[in-house]
Amino acid sequence: MDITVIVCTYNRSESLAATLTALAQQKVGDLTWELIVVDNNSRDNTREIVDNFARDASFPVRYQFEGRQGLCWARNTGIANASGEIIAFTDDDVQPEESWVSKTVLAM
Prior knowledge:
The protein is globular. By secondary structure, the protein is of the alpha/beta class. It has helices spanning 13-24, 46-56, 71-81, 100-107, and strands at residues 3-9, 33-39, 61-65, 86-91. Strand 2, helix 2 and strand 3 (61-65) form a beta-alpha-beta unit.
């Protein structure tokens, strides 16, 4: 796996949905990549949003729950479950441009 993208989220399912849509548009060529969404104890429909997205994604998508509140806990959970040689983070309210994943790998 070339890269793991990790999105940590907390009660932001609406903006997360837009982030996931943007990630689905990534142009990666021959790169292999996965997405891990770490739910940091949300009380909204985050799990449903991720599960629905994962069903149709053309790349592996995993949902991880982290009950200990705090970004450091969420990021560490994502890192512990990552398979990629490179780990990249983006936020649940960001819509990365379609070349973000490939440019991140090329920069390394």
